[in-house]
Amino acid sequence: MPHRPIYLDCHATTPVDDRVLAAMLPYFTEHFGNPASVTHLYGWEAEAAVKQAREILADAIHATPEEIVFTSGATEANNLAIKGVAEAYFSQGRHLITLQTEHNAVLDPCGYLRSLGFEVTFLSVQPDGLIDLTQLEKAIRPDTILVSIMAANNEIGVLQPLTEIGAICHQHEVLFHTDAAQAIGKIFLDVEAMQIDLMSLTAHKVYGPKGIGALYVRRRNPRVQVAPQLHGGGHERGMRSGTLYTPQIVGFAEAVKLGLTEMESDMVRIQALRNRLWLHLQTLDGIHLNGHPTQRLPGNLNISVEGVDGQALLLGLQPIAAVSSGSACTSAKIEPSHVLLALGLSPELAYTSIRFGIGRSNTLEEIDRVAAGAIELIRSLRNVGKD
Ligand SMILES: *Cc1c(COP(=O)(O)O)cnc(C)c1O
Question: Which of 100, 113, 227, 338 is the most buried (most CB within 10 A)?
Answer without folding.
Answer: 113
